[in-house]
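Pasting two entries for a bug report.
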Amino acid sequence: MLGAVTRVDCVLTGRAVPFRGAERSAIQKRAADGSVRVGWLGLDGDEQADLSVHGGPDKAIHHYAFDHYARWAEKAPAHPKLSVPGAFGENISTHGLTEETVCIGDRFRLGTALVEVSQPRQPCWKQAHVMEWTTLPKMMVREAKSGWYYRVIEEGAVAAGDAMTLEARPHLDWPVARVFGLVMHKTAVRDVEALRAIAALEVLEAGWREMAKNVGEA
């Protein structure tokens, strides 16, 4: 519903550090103190180690629902990283917004910034490595609990406790979970018409549109 308000529980940033051998990563985020500037490429103080697959205007900010932590804690009840936000490399943590309720193209007033949902997140091996949980990325894909990214429409600032207000929802038919499922669940029955519609969804990041086209033509 337009005008709906969610509170930001935590704003997180991370620096690129040694991760696995010569590999570097900034997936391990920490809660930021106070207000953080939101620029075109994301939050001040946040880094990406491999700019060929992370960061950029269409992956400026990563949002992961803290709502999902209880589900993962059921699978790994003693995991030390599931008690506070940051286990999934997220920049924004909230309760009440999930892949089922957030749509591609949604625009949120995030603190004083304006951001737009650009694509689902695609889990990778780094998530498994940081959590020491080899099957986690596959589970995230299977359950469509992947998170999503924003592009920045207007720069500003955000802090924990700030409001996230839904200002626009132009694509009600395309929740993040639906797009993720149609493109990533390649063993499911293909809805060719839906995949063609996703491929034509201009607000969706170009790589995801190309994947939708390829899956639809397979």
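Entry 2 (this is the one that rendered wrong in the viewer):
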Amino acid sequence: MSKLLDGHIARRDFIKATAATGAGLALATGVGSFARSAAADQMFKGEQLRIFTYAGAWGDQFKKNFAPLFKEVTGADLIIELGWWDSIPKLKASPPGKPAFDLIMTDATQGYPAIREGLFQKVNLTNVPNASKFTPAATDNWVVKEGWGITWPDAAQTGVFNNAVVTPPPTRWADLLDKRFDQKLGIYNSFYFSLFTFACMKVDSEGKAGTAREECEKNLDGVLNFAKSQRDRVNYWWPSSSDMALNLVQKNVLAGNIHSVDAFGPIRDGQPVGVFVPDTDRASFQALWVVAKDTKKKELAEAAMNVFCSEAFQEIYASDGGFPTAIPSVAEKVAAKDKLWASIYAHTPEQFKNVGYYPYDAYFKQWDQIVSVWDKEVLRKA
């Protein structure tokens, strides 16, 4: 450890040192601090990293917890811009050599095409050793294999209902077909999420729970037709989880789907909100960290990704933010302390076997068809 303690360490060794001293990263006052070492000697002191992350619960976590931890570890400041679908357009509009963001949090629907368009640069994943702690299924993806960035399962598909009214509660996706939910369903208006919810409802009602991804791959037309058959039962095509939660509390809808992270707030506030997440057909949106092609701060961006993937921040992200974690040991630890979190996210070896993303590959094969049918025939009354 003498090399770490004497403060003389090359930048290229910085991130590896961070990983090596990960055991010294202890939680304290909800943020965390590194044990004194070269990793805490702020090798990037005085620099700035401009990042884009999603708003809402994501923005809260990055401002509240990630930014101060990142500064403590690296010495650099984060400039955080929040949004939803605007990161790629802003990146494309940036002048040459001056990208709007250095490091971007995006998802498969936006990130895949943008990678292929050449908007990002490959990263040195040996500088992000903490990512190796993620369950293999989380990073078994061409984005990681080709060196474009890091992938992880973020907000999970979650069933939700008003538990002051709905008795008995739904416990599986086929339960949403119950007539008591006719014109009382709240479903997300984005197909990447809700088309899979319909696939889960379809296969579960047919006695084939656990085959929703295969159904999307082999019988997408059947899934689309099923979605069309359900459209008149949907009372509210919600645009954001907060809107869904509000309408659920107000009894405008009685059940439906929701992003997992946005269920925690109303439940912890004592609102009449219940959740269910069947072990079969678990799905999360696939989040990506990618680095802008023109940024000169690739090393600092890699340092940020490594801090994000650390056990310490993943525990904060899960326990304070209500997010899943792809690190099994962290998931087990958080679940032992938080029954609500454990009821939503994978935390046992068996549950981690069923962790997966939405069926993006199936979607991309028939993207134009899905968009057309979804917009014109499923959301026609939206």
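Dev reply: Rendering is fixed now. As a check, the viewer should reflect this: The chain has two domains: 2-154+284-353, 157-283+359-378.
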